[in-house]
Amino acid sequence: MKVALVTGASRGIGLAVADALRASGMHVVRLARTVREGTFERRTDIACDLTDPASVERAVGRVEQEPGLPDIIVNNAGVFFIKPLADTTYEDFTRTLATNLTAAFLIARALVPKMVKRGSGHLVTIGSISDYIGFSGSTAYAASKFGLRGMHEVIRQETAKSGVRTTLISPGPVDTDIWNAVDPDSKPGFTKRKDMMRVEDVAAAVVYAVMQPERIDITEIRLLPTIYTPRG
Ligand SMILES: NC(=O)c1ccc[n+]([C@@H]2O[C@H](COP(=O)([O-])OP(=O)(O)OC[C@H]3O[C@@H](n4cnc5c(N)ncnc54)[C@H](OP(=O)(O)O)[C@@H]3O)[C@@H](O)[C@H]2O)c1
Predict the structure, then answer these.
(1) How many Å lie between the centroid of ligand 1 and the Cα of residue 6?
(2) 14 Cα to the center of ligand 1, angstroms
(3) Does the beta carbon of 12 sit less than 6 angstroms from any atom of ligand 1?
(4) pLDDT digit string (tens) for 104-138?
(5) How far apart are CA 89 and CA 66, in angstroms?
(6) The Cα angle at residue 169 between residues 164 and 170, in degrees rounded to 5
(7) 88 lines ligand 1 (CB under 6 A)
(8) Strand stretches in 83-224, DSSP E
(9) Ligand 1 within 6 A of CB of 221
(10) How many angstroms separate the CA atoms of 39 and 54, rounded?
(11) Residue with CA closest to ligand 1 atom 23
């Protein structure tokens, strides 16, 4: 049975991705701060603060023990806020980088070389439209997401011809809790929540990428709502 590890899988996109991969027959490991630790039928939940390298190391060690080295990793966990540069604190910036980028690096560094040695595996990175467009108020978020794009490209180079596949999925707005503090429905210029994509739409893209025959490597997927308001 294939094993999939999904970070940030307690809610939102990560939860939908974990559910979809489990529904396709895999054993799913869900990492997040607020999951209750336990092993269930084709599911392992591990509480992990991805901003803490020791917590990541412990979680990765547990995964390798049981259910074993993953076949699929989905680096999904992330935080988001909108503030002008002048109001973005050092803490805002470093917390965003730690959650969105450094955690993905720690997970990839711990597990991808072992996938390469095995000759199979799939690293899926959940980027964002902010990994290729700069939006006002997104200094920290864009730095983290453009960083993820860069890391994805380099890991692609380093794993080329190893049998390991790498996919960057870059969604536009998806209706999740991540938007609660922004409250886009009350602000002009933002895509309204009813027009946003649903978590299942991103999960379907992940399933599409990882279910391809082994000869096909989906490098990148960009998703946008059909009715979309790009903010300035
Ligand atoms: N929603 C969108 O419009 C959108 C668009 C493009 C890309 N994305 C990206 O999609 C990903 C998921 O976003 P979402 O909308 O599903 O957000 P969400 O509903 O707020 O969920 C975020 C997830 O990340 C986890 N997380 C946050 N900080 C963590 C930490 N320190 N340690 C462990 N887990 C942590 C949360 O779990 P705990 O709180 O339980 O730890 C939660 O499971 C993010 O990378 C986001 O940038 C979202």
Answers:
(1) 11
(2) 7
(3) yes
(4) 999 999 999 999 999 999 999 999 999 999 999 99
(5) 39
(6) 150
(7) no
(8) 121-126, 164-171, 220-223
(9) no
(10) 21
(11) 8
Q: Which atom of ligand 1 is nearest to the CA of 10?
A: 43
183: left (phi over 0), alpha (psi -120 to 50) or beta: left
**pLDDT class of 65 with cuts at 50, 70, 90:** very high
Q: Residue 228 catalytic?
A: no
Q: How far apart are CA 60 and CA 66, in angstroms?
A: 10
What domains are defined for the chain?
3-223 (3.40.50.720)
Residue 183 corresponds to which tokens in the numbers above?
Answer: 């409250």
| Residue with CA nearest ligand 1 atom 44 | 78
* Contact in structure between 139 and 93 (CB atoms under 8 Å): yes
Q: Could you tell me the end-to-end alpha-carbon distance of the chain, in angstroms, rounded to an integer?
A: 46
DSSP state of 162: T
> Is the entire prediction scored with pTM above 0.90?
yes
Over the chain, what is the mean pLDDT?
97
E strand map for the chain: 3-7, 27-32, 38-40, 43-47, 72-75, 121-126, 164-171, 220-223
